[in-house]
């Protein structure tokens, strides 16, 4: 992860993909982002500690996409 930011539309990240990862994402072999985060007692996310693309997500999230050199969404609420 080279850059991470958020705004009213969601959490956004700029990632330096390997060629293999880029091909797997554009080929839709891995479409779902699985974020790792601690939360407080109210369920409020405190910080993002990691993320990876998976075949079957545990959370309802928007499918990831490879957007070349532009910023692509890291996750959004579903």
Structure in a nutshell:
This protein has about 80 residues and is mainly β.
Assess the beta-strand content as a share of residues: 25-35%
Rg (CA only): 13 Å
Major sheet, described briefly? 3 strands, antiparallel
Going by helix content, strand content and strand pairing, the class is mainly beta
Helix-strand sequence: EEHEEE
| C-alpha geometry | globular
**Mean pLDDT, rounded to whole units?**
77
Distance between the termini: 23 Å
Number of strands: 5
Protein model, in words:
The protein has one helix spanning 19-26, and strands spanning 3-7, 10-14, 32-36, 50-54, 72-75. By secondary structure, the chain is mainly beta. It has one domain. The strands form 2 sheets. It has a 3-stranded antiparallel sheet with strand order 1-2-5, with no helix packed on it. Strands 3-4 form a two-stranded antiparallel ribbon. The longest helix is centred in the first third of the chain and has 8 residues, at 19-26.
Write the layout of secondary structure elements.
Elements: E1 3-7, E2 10-14, H1 19-26, E3 32-36, E4 50-54, E5 72-75
Antiparallel strand pairs: 1-2, 2-5, 3-4
């Amino acid at each position: 992860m080279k850059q991470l930011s958020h705004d009213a539309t969601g959490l956004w990240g700029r990632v330096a993909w390997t060629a293999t990862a880029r091909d797997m994402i554009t080929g839709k072999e891995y479409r779902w982002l699985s974020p790792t985060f601690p939360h407080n007692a109210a369920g409020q996310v405190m910080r993002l500690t990691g993320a990876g693309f998976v075949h079957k997500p545990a959370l309802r999230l928007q499918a990831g996409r490879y957007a070349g050199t532009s910023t692509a969404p890291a996750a959004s609420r579903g």
